[in-house]
Each structure stands twice: as C-alpha cells, then as structure tokens.
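Hi everyone,

Forwarding the result from last night's run.
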Amino acid sequence: MQNLFPTTLYLWTSYTVCVDGDEFDLVVTAESELASLTDTVRETLKRCVETAPLTERLVVRLAPLSALADHDHVVESKTRRKRVRQLFRERLSGVGGVTTTDGVWIYVDTTVHGHREALGNAVAHEYAHVCRDAGDGRLADRLVDEGLAQCFEAAMTDRQPPQTEWATVDDAERLLRAVADRLESRDRSLHGRVLYGSFGEDDTFVPGAGYVLAYELVAGCEITSDRPWPEAFTTPTHRVFETTRFPR
C-alpha cells in the first residue's frame, strides 16, 4: 500500500532561543494547544500528500515565531528580521514558513488571533515549495514558485491566500514594470525586497506587492486549473510568463 503520509513532525515545548542578540524564554504551550496545532498540520499535510504525493520523507518542524532568524533569502539585516516578524504577526495571523534543504519550518505565534487557520495555509504553501524544483534561482523563478505555492494553498484550504491582500493589483503591476529588466537577477536581497518590501527605504517595493504579482502571474495562465498538481509543479518559468494574462 502506498504511504500517503511520509512526514515527520517535530513540535516545541519550551526552550530559550537567541534572536538578534536577544534571548526569548518561551512560555510552555499547553498540551491541548499543541494537540490542536498538530491536528491542523496533519490534516493539511494529508490533503497535500493525497493531491501531490512525495517520493521522499518530508520533515516538518513547528516552532515559535520568535525563532525566525537567519534565513538569508527572507531577511538580510537585524532591522529587516524584526520587521518581517512584525509583518507575519500583523498580516499572516502570526504564522510564517520557510522551506530549506532540511525540510519545512513553520513558525507560529499562538497569542495572535486566527493563527490556527493561518497554520493550514502556511503548511500547504510550504508543501508546494517542496514539490517544485527551485529552478535557476532567478527572480522570475522565485515569483513563479511563490505564485504556484499560493494557488496550491488556496486549493488545499479553500481559502484565499492572505498574501494576496497585502497589496493591490495596481501595486503588483507597478512592481512588474519596475523589475522587468531584473527578472534574471539571482540577488537574494532583491528577491526579499520584491516580496516583503523595503519598509519605506524605496517606494518601488511595496510590502506584499511581490506576492500579489506572483499570484496574479500564475493564476493568469490557468496552469493549475486544467492539469493535475504534480504536472503543474513542473511548469517551466518561461511558460508562465509567456502564457499569463497578467497584466490584463
């Protein structure tokens, strides 16, 4: 029988984590809360695996949001790390995720309202990143990766990805015009500014406009509506840019 749940899930109980030189003593999360979080993760993963089966075991680690630290494609400075964590608390109900070569990290602030629903979105989003080859590391690849992840997230949770509400479609169109000649760039700091914004340092990069752009690019070419997800994940980056109807 095929294993439809090839995952390992690690949870935190309590420990001290050092971020930006500051130590955070984490309050022990009640067992009932951990059980609820675990159920959400497992239910979402089960649906993801049934839709797009994995060939290798996936490790998922659930950790406090305060532990979000030195993932260089997200944050490249102490100030930006703090602002990104704030962005996750205010715009993503206290939940964020990162996919690395070691598996998936999901960060949760259980004090933020709505974190349980947001957890399902984050799990599906990061699962999509596991399913797709990262490509050549260009900005164009990153945008398609994030767009596919958001579309998969919506399909798995029956909820609109919250990132699509961070900015407007007009913001996304302006951003596309601004970076049109930098889509081949492999500069991760640029990727971070495109997705998360420059936090006032440059009006070109509105926080979240990159996520809206990514979603509109992929949704605009309908590759996720007429193909099974395992096939959709293999869509070449250039195919998305060639067939998308965005901007309209």
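The beta strands are 7-10, 16-19, 22-25, 58-64, 95-100, 103-108.

Cheers,
N.
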